[in-house]
Amino acid sequence: MTKGSDVPAIQARSMVIQIVMDHTGHSRHEFDADDIEAVDEAEIRFRELTNDGYIAAVRTAEGEALRVFAFDPTAKETLFVRRL
Amino acid sequence: MLSISRCAAQISRLRALRQLYCSFVSEKSPEAKGRTLLREWLTPAQRRQFAEQGFFDVVGGATRMRYRVQYGSVANVHEIDFEGKSGGILCFAPEGHLVPGDVMLARKIALEADELAALAVATRVAPIVSGSIRSL
Question: Which of A32, A83, B48, B83 is the most exposed place for a label (fewest CB within 10 A)?
């Protein structure tokens, strides 16, 4: 439990995920959006993958895919797809 | 008598273990992971359509044209005209070796998020008539 709170620490964290398509199906990289080091790592991963030709996409509230060109640490889920 | 019942219990335990192993392997296989990810990323309507009919429709992000993505990795995107009739077949796929669920998801994302780029790289073939595919 977080000190002075009824919310368990694990729930209070804002976990976000980057999913990379690969030959194993996909790999998931989960990180805490409040952890500066983890966010830096995720931003580097975003840049490396997009420079490598991966397309980054997020989901709209309706479930449609939207391409993104810049790293957004608040995006709950970002999917990286190999270029066509 | 006792040894027979012990043997039966052991066989039953082994069967249960085998079942557990098989379900673990099938859930962790690349194909299963690809299908799970695909289902997670479909809209509720697409998920329902895929579960009931084995394909799902995608609306192009730029032209609002409708495309039908069938299960599989090859030649499985059909253009659907405004009357709901199947038109040409589009062939395009992401680079590298990916499982069918991932290929289908990559196509959905390409058509929704960057339709014109997908159409630019796609090879268009005519619908299958009498077992043959004619290039357009």
Answer: B83
ipTM of the complex: 0.80
Contact residues, chain A, for B101 at CB < 8 Å: 25
Q: Within an 8 Å CB–CB cutoff, is residue B64 touching chain A?
A: no
Closest residue in B to A21 (Cα) is B102
Minimum CA–CA partner of A19 in chain B: B37
DSSP for residue B131: T
Q: Which residues contact A47 (CB under 8 A, 6 or more apart)?
A: A71
pTM across the whole model: 0.78
Does A44 have pLDDT greater than 60?
A: yes
Tell me the domains of chain A and their CATH numbers: 9-81 (3.10.20)
CB-neighbour burial class of residue A74 (10 A; exposed 0-12, middle 13-18, buried 19+) = exposed
